[in-house]
Design brief:
Length: 304
């Protein structure tokens, strides 16, 4: 992760995105580096939410694993730079990192390639950075990590519509889309709308909404009991004009799994696992549909 690699030296303007001040580099070089890395990644999907703690990281980790279980090559980028916890949920605390002139190789856990600030920063030290530095880190994650060939790269974002989300949307040339995670309460609709509005402004497709913590799945008998008014996720999706990808119930084993570093779907059965698997199928359909649309658009361009 050498910042100087793409630095053209005196000629370049100081980049507002990299912010480090010491290095001058051309944004064009960054875009080219990101494009080169992302060329071999078929589908890139960012996971967002309006509010914190709704389950983005849980969803990202379990979807990544579900995709890997289906035989896809999967990467997971922890774009929550100041509060990274993907690594903990996947049970990789202090992996050995291989930094080479070609870039940094992401460690692999349970068939998923992962990169997280947790690998690079002291876990006990609070990470307090200004926006430009955060954007610089995201930039490096996208340009310096040797992902190799991937079918899916999932990107776990912090809550809200801040610098991390903006960097991801600006830098990744053909983001397949965003998935927003919400909880069933009424207020969550408003918060979800902000993420969707941001995607629309940035011309990024919205793959859909996932309603998490929807009802309670009893870990002993498996029955799902509604806690909040049911159908909240459907209502959100309808109001915002985006697909509902699925509803995941509260299952205490999900929280335990997150803490133990053994992703939930790896070792459990039940309604929540079925929900994750159904969501994966919807995501596969969505990216396939979009790829077909893109192809049609391209071929119609060449006909004219
Ligand atoms: N369906 C669920 N059932 C039970 N616990 C859950 C469920 N989804 C998430 N959790 C738990 O809720 C907590 C918050 O989840 P998580 O960290 O995934 O949210 P987040 O949206 O990524 O949070 P942040 O905004 O801080 O990044 C975790 O302890 C997680 O294990
Ligand atoms: Mg998170
Ligand atoms: Zn029960």
């Amino acid at each position: 992760m050498e910042k100087g690699e793409n630095t053209p030296g005196e000629q370049g303007e100081a980049c507002s995105a990299c912010g480090a001040g010491e290095a001058k580099h051309e944004p064009e070089a960054t875009f080219a580096a990101v494009r080169a890395r992302m060329k071999n990644v078929k589908h890139k999907i960012a996971i967002m939410s309006g509010k914190g703690g709704v389950g983005k990281t849980t969803v990202s980790v379990n979807l990544a694993l579900a995709l890997a279980n289906k035989g896809y090559k999967v990467g997971l980028l922890d774009a929550d730079v100041t509060a990274p916890n993907v690594a903990k949920m996947l049970g990789i605390a202090n992996p050995e990192l291989f930094a080479t002139p070609a870039g940094l190789f992401p460690p692999e856990a349970k068939g998923v390639k992962v990169i997280s600030m947790a690998f690079l920063a002291d876990e006990n030290q609070a990470i307090i950075w200004r926006g430009p530095v955060i954007m610089g880190v995201i930039e490096q994650f996208l340009s310096d990590i040797v992902w190799g060939e991937l079918d899916y790269l999932l990107i776990d974002l912090p809550p809200g519509t801040g610098d991390e989300a903006l960097s991801i949307m600006q830098l990744i040339p053909d983001l397949d889309g965003i998935i927003t995670v919400t909880t069933p309460q009424e207020v969550a609709v408003l918060d979800t709308r902000r993420s969707i509005d941001m995607a629309r402004v940035m011309r990024i497709p919205v793959i859909g909404v996932i309603e998490n913590m929807s009802g309670f799945a009893c870990p002993s008998c498996g029955e799902v009991t509604e806690i909040f008014r049911s159908g909240g996720g459907e209502k959100v999706a309808e109001e915002l004009g985006v697909p509902l990808l699925g509803s995941i119930p509260i299952d205490p084993r999900i929280a335990e799994a997150g803490d133990s570093g053994e992703p939930f779907i790896a070792t459990n059965e039940g309604a929540a696992k079925e929900a994750f698997e159904a969501i994966v199928e919807k995501v596969e359909e969505a990216v396939k549909k979009r790829a077909a649309e893109k192809e049609r658009e391209l071929s119609s361009l060449f006909k004219e």
